[in-house]
Design a protein that fits this description.
The protein is built from twelve helices and 20 strands. With 488 residues, the protein is an alpha/beta fold. The chain folds into three domains: 12-125, no CATH class; 134-266, Rossmann fold (3-Layer(aba) Sandwich), CATH 3.40.50.720; 297-460, Dihydrodipicolinate Reductase, domain 2, CATH 3.30.360. The strands form three sheets. It has an eight-stranded mixed beta sheet with strand order 6-7-8-5-4-9-10-11, covered by helices on one side.
Protein backbone atom coordinates (compact mmCIF):
# COMPACT_ATOMS: atom_id res chain seq x y z
CA UNK A 1 0.00 0.00 0.00
CA UNK A 2 1.07 3.63 -0.47
CA UNK A 3 3.35 5.01 2.23
CA UNK A 4 3.49 8.69 1.20
CA UNK A 5 0.04 9.43 2.70
CA UNK A 6 1.11 8.24 6.14
CA UNK A 7 2.94 9.85 9.04
CA UNK A 8 6.67 9.47 9.25
CA UNK A 9 7.60 6.10 10.77
CA UNK A 10 9.99 7.90 13.11
CA UNK A 11 7.05 9.25 15.10
CA UNK A 12 5.40 6.02 16.15
CA UNK A 13 3.23 7.57 18.84
CA UNK A 14 1.72 10.15 16.49
CA UNK A 15 1.20 7.43 13.90
CA UNK A 16 -0.56 5.23 16.44
CA UNK A 17 -2.82 8.04 17.66
CA UNK A 18 -3.87 8.86 14.10
CA UNK A 19 -4.62 5.20 13.41
CA UNK A 20 -6.58 5.07 16.65
CA UNK A 21 -8.66 8.08 15.62
CA UNK A 22 -9.46 6.46 12.27
CA UNK A 23 -10.48 3.19 13.95
CA UNK A 24 -12.68 5.11 16.38
CA UNK A 25 -14.42 6.87 13.49
CA UNK A 26 -15.08 3.51 11.83
CA UNK A 27 -17.23 2.17 14.68
CA UNK A 28 -20.42 4.20 14.05
CA UNK A 29 -20.15 3.55 10.32
CA UNK A 30 -19.80 -0.20 10.91
CA UNK A 31 -22.72 -0.15 13.33
CA UNK A 32 -25.01 1.81 11.04
CA UNK A 33 -24.32 -0.50 8.09
CA UNK A 34 -25.07 -3.51 10.29
CA UNK A 35 -28.23 -2.24 11.99
CA UNK A 36 -29.88 -0.38 9.13
CA UNK A 37 -28.80 -2.35 6.05
CA UNK A 38 -27.81 -5.73 7.54
CA UNK A 39 -24.35 -5.32 6.01
CA UNK A 40 -21.61 -7.15 7.93
CA UNK A 41 -18.09 -5.82 7.40
CA UNK A 42 -14.89 -7.85 7.67
CA UNK A 43 -11.13 -7.39 7.56
CA UNK A 44 -9.62 -10.40 5.83
CA UNK A 45 -12.32 -12.62 7.29
CA UNK A 46 -12.28 -11.05 10.77
CA UNK A 47 -15.59 -9.45 11.70
CA UNK A 48 -15.52 -5.70 12.33
CA UNK A 49 -19.00 -5.61 13.89
CA UNK A 50 -19.31 -4.85 17.61
CA UNK A 51 -15.55 -4.50 17.98
CA UNK A 52 -13.62 -2.00 20.08
CA UNK A 53 -11.07 0.48 18.74
CA UNK A 54 -8.25 -1.78 19.91
CA UNK A 55 -9.90 -4.85 18.34
CA UNK A 56 -10.01 -3.10 14.96
CA UNK A 57 -6.38 -2.03 15.23
CA UNK A 58 -5.31 -5.56 16.14
CA UNK A 59 -7.20 -6.90 13.12
CA UNK A 60 -5.18 -4.58 10.88
CA UNK A 61 -2.00 -5.80 12.56
CA UNK A 62 -3.06 -9.41 11.85
CA UNK A 63 -3.30 -8.62 8.14
CA UNK A 64 0.18 -7.09 8.10
CA UNK A 65 1.66 -10.15 9.82
CA UNK A 66 -0.14 -12.98 8.06
CA UNK A 67 -1.34 -11.63 4.73
CA UNK A 68 1.94 -9.75 4.16
CA UNK A 69 0.01 -6.75 2.81
CA UNK A 70 0.99 -3.43 4.39
CA UNK A 71 -2.63 -2.48 4.94
CA UNK A 72 -3.57 0.06 7.60
CA UNK A 73 -6.41 2.19 8.87
CA UNK A 74 -5.29 4.85 6.37
CA UNK A 75 -6.32 2.43 3.61
CA UNK A 76 -9.50 0.94 5.05
CA UNK A 77 -11.07 4.09 6.54
CA UNK A 78 -11.71 5.79 3.16
CA UNK A 79 -13.05 2.51 1.77
CA UNK A 80 -15.46 2.05 4.68
CA UNK A 81 -16.53 5.69 4.51
CA UNK A 82 -17.39 5.37 0.82
CA UNK A 83 -19.30 2.13 1.39
CA UNK A 84 -21.28 3.69 4.24
CA UNK A 85 -22.57 6.33 1.82
CA UNK A 86 -23.93 3.74 -0.61
CA UNK A 87 -27.47 2.39 -0.68
CA UNK A 88 -26.77 -1.24 0.10
CA UNK A 89 -28.77 -4.40 0.51
CA UNK A 90 -27.89 -7.26 2.91
CA UNK A 91 -24.33 -8.46 2.28
CA UNK A 92 -21.00 -9.50 3.79
CA UNK A 93 -18.26 -7.11 2.64
CA UNK A 94 -14.53 -7.58 3.27
CA UNK A 95 -13.20 -4.05 3.58
CA UNK A 96 -9.58 -5.20 3.81
CA UNK A 97 -9.62 -7.18 0.60
CA UNK A 98 -11.42 -4.42 -1.27
CA UNK A 99 -8.82 -1.90 -0.05
CA UNK A 100 -5.98 -4.09 -1.33
CA UNK A 101 -7.71 -4.57 -4.67
CA UNK A 102 -8.33 -0.84 -5.01
CA UNK A 103 -4.67 -0.01 -4.36
CA UNK A 104 -3.76 -1.87 -7.54
CA UNK A 105 -6.24 0.27 -9.52
CA UNK A 106 -6.02 3.58 -7.67
CA UNK A 107 -4.22 5.28 -10.56
CA UNK A 108 -7.02 4.32 -12.92
CA UNK A 109 -10.19 5.10 -10.97
CA UNK A 110 -11.63 6.66 -7.84
CA UNK A 111 -12.89 4.71 -4.82
CA UNK A 112 -16.50 5.42 -5.85
CA UNK A 113 -15.89 4.14 -9.37
CA UNK A 114 -14.12 1.05 -8.05
CA UNK A 115 -16.93 0.25 -5.61
CA UNK A 116 -19.61 0.80 -8.22
CA UNK A 117 -17.96 -1.85 -10.40
CA UNK A 118 -16.88 -4.23 -7.61
CA UNK A 119 -20.09 -4.28 -5.58
CA UNK A 120 -22.28 -4.24 -8.69
CA UNK A 121 -24.68 -1.36 -9.13
CA UNK A 122 -27.72 -3.43 -8.13
CA UNK A 123 -26.51 -4.48 -4.65
CA UNK A 124 -29.01 -2.10 -3.05
CA UNK A 125 -31.92 -3.92 -4.69
CA UNK A 126 -30.83 -7.45 -3.83
CA UNK A 127 -33.41 -9.64 -2.17
CA UNK A 128 -33.18 -10.26 1.56
CA UNK A 129 -31.18 -13.35 2.65
CA UNK A 130 -34.55 -14.85 3.68
CA UNK A 131 -38.09 -14.08 2.59
CA UNK A 132 -39.09 -13.93 6.27
CA UNK A 133 -37.15 -14.34 9.53
CA UNK A 134 -36.37 -17.88 10.61
CA UNK A 135 -37.46 -18.83 14.14
CA UNK A 136 -34.79 -20.70 16.13
CA UNK A 137 -35.26 -22.78 19.29
CA UNK A 138 -32.35 -23.97 21.44
CA UNK A 139 -33.10 -27.30 23.08
CA UNK A 140 -30.59 -27.37 25.92
CA UNK A 141 -28.68 -24.45 27.43
CA UNK A 142 -25.29 -25.86 28.42
CA UNK A 143 -21.86 -24.84 27.10
CA UNK A 144 -22.77 -25.00 23.40
CA UNK A 145 -26.33 -23.75 23.93
CA UNK A 146 -25.18 -20.57 25.68
CA UNK A 147 -22.54 -19.84 23.05
CA UNK A 148 -25.08 -20.37 20.28
CA UNK A 149 -27.38 -17.92 22.05
CA UNK A 150 -24.56 -15.34 22.13
CA UNK A 151 -23.86 -15.85 18.43
CA UNK A 152 -27.49 -15.74 17.37
CA UNK A 153 -28.12 -12.55 19.33
CA UNK A 154 -24.87 -11.06 18.01
CA UNK A 155 -25.94 -11.86 14.44
CA UNK A 156 -29.48 -10.49 14.86
CA UNK A 157 -28.53 -7.46 12.73
CA UNK A 158 -31.64 -5.99 11.18
CA UNK A 159 -33.72 -8.83 12.62
CA UNK A 160 -34.64 -10.31 9.25
CA UNK A 161 -32.55 -13.51 9.22
CA UNK A 162 -32.20 -15.87 12.22
CA UNK A 163 -34.36 -15.04 15.22
CA UNK A 164 -33.84 -16.80 18.56
CA UNK A 165 -37.35 -17.28 19.95
CA UNK A 166 -37.07 -19.84 22.74
CA UNK A 167 -34.79 -21.97 24.89
CA UNK A 168 -35.95 -25.33 26.25
CA UNK A 169 -34.55 -26.54 29.58
CA UNK A 170 -35.48 -29.15 32.15
CA UNK A 171 -38.10 -28.30 34.71
CA UNK A 172 -36.38 -26.69 37.70
CA UNK A 173 -36.72 -27.41 41.39
CA UNK A 174 -39.34 -25.26 43.03
CA UNK A 175 -36.81 -23.10 44.91
CA UNK A 176 -34.04 -22.99 42.31
CA UNK A 177 -34.33 -19.34 41.15
CA UNK A 178 -33.81 -20.90 37.73
CA UNK A 179 -34.12 -17.93 35.37
CA UNK A 180 -31.69 -15.79 37.36
CA UNK A 181 -29.13 -18.60 37.42
CA UNK A 182 -29.36 -19.24 33.68
CA UNK A 183 -29.10 -15.53 32.92
CA UNK A 184 -26.04 -15.30 35.19
CA UNK A 185 -24.36 -18.18 33.34
CA UNK A 186 -24.88 -16.41 30.05
CA UNK A 187 -23.71 -13.02 31.39
CA UNK A 188 -20.42 -14.32 32.77
CA UNK A 189 -18.34 -17.18 31.43
CA UNK A 190 -15.07 -18.26 33.02
CA UNK A 191 -13.62 -19.18 29.63
CA UNK A 192 -15.28 -16.88 27.11
CA UNK A 193 -15.63 -13.79 29.26
CA UNK A 194 -18.62 -11.55 29.84
CA UNK A 195 -21.51 -11.28 27.41
CA UNK A 196 -21.29 -8.05 25.41
CA UNK A 197 -24.84 -6.89 26.02
CA UNK A 198 -27.69 -6.79 28.47
CA UNK A 199 -29.99 -9.50 29.81
CA UNK A 200 -33.25 -8.72 31.62
CA UNK A 201 -35.08 -11.43 33.54
CA UNK A 202 -38.88 -11.37 33.39
CA UNK A 203 -39.95 -14.04 35.87
CA UNK A 204 -43.69 -13.48 35.39
CA UNK A 205 -43.56 -14.36 31.70
CA UNK A 206 -40.56 -16.75 31.96
CA UNK A 207 -38.63 -14.65 29.46
CA UNK A 208 -35.08 -13.43 29.02
CA UNK A 209 -34.79 -10.15 27.11
CA UNK A 210 -31.32 -10.34 25.53
CA UNK A 211 -30.17 -7.14 23.83
CA UNK A 212 -33.81 -6.27 23.33
CA UNK A 213 -34.73 -9.70 21.92
CA UNK A 214 -37.41 -11.51 23.99
CA UNK A 215 -36.51 -15.19 24.35
CA UNK A 216 -39.05 -17.48 25.97
CA UNK A 217 -37.79 -20.09 28.44
CA UNK A 218 -39.80 -23.29 28.00
CA UNK A 219 -39.61 -25.90 30.73
CA UNK A 220 -39.93 -29.50 29.54
CA UNK A 221 -38.38 -32.86 30.35
CA UNK A 222 -39.01 -34.34 26.88
CA UNK A 223 -39.67 -32.90 23.41
CA UNK A 224 -43.12 -34.52 23.35
CA UNK A 225 -44.45 -32.07 25.94
CA UNK A 226 -44.02 -28.95 23.83
CA UNK A 227 -46.38 -27.09 21.51
CA UNK A 228 -44.25 -24.31 20.03
CA UNK A 229 -47.22 -22.78 18.23
CA UNK A 230 -48.69 -21.89 21.60
CA UNK A 231 -45.76 -19.46 22.04
CA UNK A 232 -46.21 -17.85 18.63
CA UNK A 233 -43.32 -19.84 17.16
CA UNK A 234 -43.72 -21.09 13.60
CA UNK A 235 -41.68 -23.32 11.27
CA UNK A 236 -38.80 -23.25 13.75
CA UNK A 237 -35.44 -24.96 13.47
CA UNK A 238 -34.78 -26.74 16.77
CA UNK A 239 -31.08 -27.01 17.66
CA UNK A 240 -30.64 -30.00 19.97
CA UNK A 241 -27.62 -29.37 22.21
CA UNK A 242 -28.25 -32.24 24.61
CA UNK A 243 -26.86 -35.14 22.58
CA UNK A 244 -29.46 -37.40 24.20
CA UNK A 245 -31.08 -38.35 20.89
CA UNK A 246 -29.02 -39.26 17.84
CA UNK A 247 -31.26 -41.29 15.55
CA UNK A 248 -33.94 -40.24 13.09
CA UNK A 249 -36.70 -41.85 15.14
CA UNK A 250 -35.67 -40.16 18.38
CA UNK A 251 -34.91 -36.74 16.87
CA UNK A 252 -38.28 -36.69 15.12
CA UNK A 253 -39.77 -36.14 18.56
CA UNK A 254 -38.68 -32.51 18.21
CA UNK A 255 -40.98 -32.02 15.23
CA UNK A 256 -43.82 -30.67 17.28
CA UNK A 257 -46.42 -28.03 16.30
CA UNK A 258 -44.45 -24.90 15.36
CA UNK A 259 -41.20 -26.82 14.75
CA UNK A 260 -40.23 -27.83 11.22
CA UNK A 261 -36.58 -28.98 11.30
CA UNK A 262 -33.95 -30.32 13.72
CA UNK A 263 -30.19 -29.78 13.84
CA UNK A 264 -28.13 -31.95 16.19
CA UNK A 265 -24.89 -30.58 17.66
CA UNK A 266 -23.29 -34.02 17.91
CA UNK A 267 -22.41 -36.84 15.52
CA UNK A 268 -25.45 -38.76 14.31
CA UNK A 269 -26.19 -42.14 12.79
CA UNK A 270 -25.55 -43.07 9.18
CA UNK A 271 -29.11 -42.23 8.13
CA UNK A 272 -28.63 -38.54 9.07
CA UNK A 273 -26.36 -36.18 7.08
CA UNK A 274 -23.27 -35.29 9.16
CA UNK A 275 -22.43 -31.84 7.85
CA UNK A 276 -19.12 -30.00 8.09
CA UNK A 277 -19.89 -26.54 6.81
CA UNK A 278 -17.54 -25.49 4.01
CA UNK A 279 -17.02 -29.06 2.84
CA UNK A 280 -20.28 -30.96 2.37
CA UNK A 281 -22.93 -28.42 3.34
CA UNK A 282 -24.26 -28.70 -0.22
CA UNK A 283 -25.81 -31.98 0.97
CA UNK A 284 -28.39 -29.94 2.90
CA UNK A 285 -31.49 -29.72 0.73
CA UNK A 286 -34.97 -28.27 1.33
CA UNK A 287 -36.21 -31.85 1.77
CA UNK A 288 -34.08 -32.52 4.83
CA UNK A 289 -35.82 -32.29 8.17
CA UNK A 290 -32.98 -33.57 10.36
CA UNK A 291 -29.23 -32.99 10.05
CA UNK A 292 -26.16 -33.18 12.28
CA UNK A 293 -23.33 -30.63 12.56
CA UNK A 294 -20.94 -33.50 13.44
CA UNK A 295 -18.41 -32.93 16.27
CA UNK A 296 -16.00 -30.14 17.09
CA UNK A 297 -13.00 -32.29 16.17
CA UNK A 298 -14.52 -33.46 12.89
CA UNK A 299 -15.16 -29.82 11.96
CA UNK A 300 -11.59 -28.93 12.90
CA UNK A 301 -9.81 -31.56 10.81
CA UNK A 302 -12.04 -32.10 7.76
CA UNK A 303 -11.34 -28.75 6.02
CA UNK A 304 -7.55 -29.15 6.27
CA UNK A 305 -7.73 -32.81 5.24
CA UNK A 306 -9.94 -31.92 2.29
CA UNK A 307 -7.45 -29.32 1.04
CA UNK A 308 -4.51 -31.70 1.51
CA UNK A 309 -6.33 -34.47 -0.34
CA UNK A 310 -7.11 -32.27 -3.33
CA UNK A 311 -3.61 -30.77 -3.59
CA UNK A 312 -1.26 -33.57 -2.53
CA UNK A 313 -3.30 -36.76 -2.21
CA UNK A 314 -3.37 -38.76 1.04
CA UNK A 315 -2.28 -42.38 1.17
CA UNK A 316 -2.90 -42.84 4.89
CA UNK A 317 -2.71 -40.97 8.14
CA UNK A 318 -3.29 -40.76 11.88
CA UNK A 319 -5.19 -38.05 13.77
CA UNK A 320 -4.28 -37.45 17.41
CA UNK A 321 -6.31 -34.87 19.30
CA UNK A 322 -5.10 -33.19 22.46
CA UNK A 323 -8.51 -32.22 23.79
CA UNK A 324 -9.64 -29.99 26.62
CA UNK A 325 -11.67 -31.79 29.28
CA UNK A 326 -15.45 -31.66 29.03
CA UNK A 327 -18.48 -31.85 31.33
CA UNK A 328 -18.85 -35.59 30.86
CA UNK A 329 -15.62 -36.14 32.85
CA UNK A 330 -15.34 -36.11 36.64
CA UNK A 331 -13.83 -33.15 38.45
CA UNK A 332 -12.32 -35.57 40.99
CA UNK A 333 -12.04 -39.37 40.88
CA UNK A 334 -15.45 -41.02 40.84
CA UNK A 335 -17.35 -43.75 39.04
CA UNK A 336 -17.79 -43.21 35.29
CA UNK A 337 -19.28 -45.60 32.77
CA UNK A 338 -16.48 -44.78 30.32
CA UNK A 339 -12.97 -46.20 30.50
CA UNK A 340 -10.47 -43.87 32.26
CA UNK A 341 -12.92 -40.95 32.29
CA UNK A 342 -13.72 -41.57 35.94
CA UNK A 343 -10.33 -40.14 36.91
CA UNK A 344 -10.00 -36.46 37.76
CA UNK A 345 -10.12 -34.31 34.62
CA UNK A 346 -8.32 -31.47 36.38
CA UNK A 347 -5.36 -33.60 37.46
CA UNK A 348 -4.76 -36.09 34.67
CA UNK A 349 -4.09 -36.55 31.01
CA UNK A 350 -6.71 -39.12 30.05
CA UNK A 351 -6.27 -41.36 27.04
CA UNK A 352 -9.57 -41.97 25.29
CA UNK A 353 -10.99 -42.79 21.90
CA UNK A 354 -12.38 -40.43 19.29
CA UNK A 355 -14.72 -41.14 16.45
CA UNK A 356 -13.52 -38.09 14.52
CA UNK A 357 -11.20 -40.00 12.17
CA UNK A 358 -14.02 -42.39 11.28
CA UNK A 359 -16.46 -39.50 10.94
CA UNK A 360 -14.20 -37.89 8.32
CA UNK A 361 -15.35 -40.55 5.87
CA UNK A 362 -18.90 -39.16 5.92
CA UNK A 363 -17.68 -35.76 4.75
CA UNK A 364 -14.80 -37.00 2.57
CA UNK A 365 -15.65 -40.49 1.22
CA UNK A 366 -12.26 -40.67 -0.58
CA UNK A 367 -10.56 -41.07 2.82
CA UNK A 368 -12.54 -44.14 3.83
CA UNK A 369 -10.26 -46.63 5.56
CA UNK A 370 -7.20 -44.35 5.32
CA UNK A 371 -7.23 -42.69 8.75
CA UNK A 372 -6.89 -43.82 12.35
CA UNK A 373 -7.45 -41.67 15.41
CA UNK A 374 -7.13 -41.34 19.16
CA UNK A 375 -7.48 -38.62 21.77
CA UNK A 376 -5.86 -37.40 24.96
CA UNK A 377 -7.99 -35.31 27.34
CA UNK A 378 -5.81 -32.76 29.14
CA UNK A 379 -6.37 -30.49 32.19
CA UNK A 380 -7.41 -27.33 30.33
CA UNK A 381 -11.04 -26.14 30.12
CA UNK A 382 -11.10 -25.13 26.45
CA UNK A 383 -9.13 -25.09 23.16
CA UNK A 384 -7.84 -28.32 21.72
CA UNK A 385 -5.27 -29.39 19.14
CA UNK A 386 -5.50 -31.85 16.27
CA UNK A 387 -2.23 -33.36 15.07
CA UNK A 388 -2.51 -34.62 11.51
CA UNK A 389 0.23 -37.13 10.69
CA UNK A 390 -0.17 -37.78 6.97
CA UNK A 391 1.59 -39.76 4.28
CA UNK A 392 1.03 -37.92 1.02
CA UNK A 393 1.11 -39.04 -2.58
CA UNK A 394 3.38 -36.13 -3.56
CA UNK A 395 6.47 -34.72 -1.86
CA UNK A 396 6.55 -31.17 -0.57
CA UNK A 397 8.55 -28.83 1.65
CA UNK A 398 7.74 -26.90 4.83
CA UNK A 399 7.69 -23.55 3.01
CA UNK A 400 5.57 -24.84 0.14
CA UNK A 401 3.05 -26.54 2.42
CA UNK A 402 2.74 -23.56 4.76
CA UNK A 403 2.24 -21.18 1.85
CA UNK A 404 -0.44 -23.47 0.43
CA UNK A 405 -2.32 -23.50 3.74
CA UNK A 406 -1.87 -19.73 4.18
CA UNK A 407 -3.45 -19.12 0.79
CA UNK A 408 -6.35 -21.41 1.68
CA UNK A 409 -6.86 -19.56 4.97
CA UNK A 410 -6.89 -16.09 3.43
CA UNK A 411 -7.88 -16.36 -0.23
CA UNK A 412 -10.25 -19.26 -0.71
CA UNK A 413 -13.77 -20.41 0.06
CA UNK A 414 -12.30 -22.13 3.16
CA UNK A 415 -11.58 -18.81 4.89
CA UNK A 416 -14.20 -19.42 7.58
CA UNK A 417 -12.94 -22.94 8.23
CA UNK A 418 -9.13 -22.64 8.11
CA UNK A 419 -7.15 -20.09 10.09
CA UNK A 420 -3.40 -19.52 10.05
CA UNK A 421 -0.90 -18.23 12.60
CA UNK A 422 2.74 -17.27 12.20
CA UNK A 423 3.36 -16.70 15.91
CA UNK A 424 6.19 -18.74 17.38
CA UNK A 425 4.82 -18.01 20.87
CA UNK A 426 1.25 -19.27 20.34
CA UNK A 427 -0.37 -21.30 23.13
CA UNK A 428 -3.86 -22.67 23.60
CA UNK A 429 -5.48 -19.68 25.33
CA UNK A 430 -4.55 -17.49 22.35
CA UNK A 431 -7.26 -19.27 20.37
CA UNK A 432 -10.18 -18.82 22.77
CA UNK A 433 -12.91 -17.19 20.70
CA UNK A 434 -11.48 -18.22 17.33
CA UNK A 435 -14.23 -18.31 14.70
CA UNK A 436 -12.43 -20.61 12.25
CA UNK A 437 -13.01 -24.34 12.60
CA UNK A 438 -9.25 -24.69 13.20
CA UNK A 439 -6.08 -22.60 12.97
CA UNK A 440 -2.91 -24.02 11.39
CA UNK A 441 0.20 -23.45 13.51
CA UNK A 442 2.69 -22.79 10.71
CA UNK A 443 5.73 -22.80 12.98
CA UNK A 444 5.00 -26.37 14.08
CA UNK A 445 4.63 -27.87 10.58
CA UNK A 446 6.96 -30.82 9.94
CA UNK A 447 7.74 -32.13 6.45
CA UNK A 448 9.94 -35.03 5.40
CA UNK A 449 9.27 -35.64 1.72
CA UNK A 450 5.84 -37.26 1.58
CA UNK A 451 5.45 -37.45 5.36
CA UNK A 452 3.97 -34.35 6.97
CA UNK A 453 2.69 -33.37 10.41
CA UNK A 454 0.27 -30.45 10.66
CA UNK A 455 -0.77 -28.94 14.01
CA UNK A 456 -4.23 -27.38 14.16
CA UNK A 457 -5.58 -25.41 17.13
CA UNK A 458 -9.33 -25.19 17.62
CA UNK A 459 -11.67 -23.68 20.17
CA UNK A 460 -13.72 -26.81 20.69
CA UNK A 461 -16.61 -24.72 22.04
CA UNK A 462 -16.76 -21.39 20.22
CA UNK A 463 -15.36 -22.24 16.80
CA UNK A 464 -17.63 -25.27 16.69
CA UNK A 465 -20.60 -23.09 17.61
CA UNK A 466 -19.70 -20.79 14.70
CA UNK A 467 -19.78 -23.78 12.36
CA UNK A 468 -23.17 -24.78 13.78
CA UNK A 469 -24.61 -21.32 13.06
CA UNK A 470 -23.30 -21.53 9.49
CA UNK A 471 -25.09 -24.87 9.12
CA UNK A 472 -28.27 -23.34 10.54
CA UNK A 473 -28.12 -20.54 7.97
CA UNK A 474 -27.75 -23.06 5.17
CA UNK A 475 -30.54 -25.20 6.68
CA UNK A 476 -32.79 -22.12 6.75
CA UNK A 477 -31.96 -21.22 3.14
CA UNK A 478 -30.02 -18.05 3.97
CA UNK A 479 -28.10 -16.67 0.99
CA UNK A 480 -25.60 -13.87 1.64
CA UNK A 481 -24.03 -11.79 -1.08
CA UNK A 482 -20.28 -11.68 -0.39
CA UNK A 483 -17.78 -9.14 -1.69
CA UNK A 484 -15.22 -9.87 -2.94
CA UNK A 485 -16.47 -13.31 -3.95
CA UNK A 486 -13.74 -15.88 -3.21
CA UNK A 487 -15.41 -18.42 -5.49
CA UNK A 488 -15.06 -16.26 -8.58
Amino acid sequence: MKEDNRPSPENFFTDWKQREALAEAMIPQIGKLYRESNVSTYLYGKSMVNKSVTDLMKAHRFVRQVEKNEISEFDTAPMLSAISQMSLGPAHIDIGKLAVQFEKLSDQCSIDQFLSAELAANIGTLAKPLVEPQDIVLYGFGRIGRLLARLLIDKAGGGDVLRLRAIVVRKPRQDSNDLEKRAALMRQDSVHGSFKGTIRVLNDSQTLVINGNPVKIIYADTPDEINYSAYGINKAIVIDNTGLWKTTDSLQRHLRPGAEKVLLTAPAGDDIPNVVYGINHHQITPNHKIISAASCTTNAIVPVLHCMLKEYGIEQGHVETVHAYTNDQNLIDNYHVGDRRGRSAALNMVLTSTGAAKAVEKAIPELKGKLTGNSIRVPTPNVSMAILNLQLEKSTTVDELNEFLRQKALHSAYQQQIGYTVSSEAVSTDFVGSRQASVVDSNATIVNGKNVVIYCWYDNEFSYSCQVVRCVEKFAGVIWQRYPNENQ
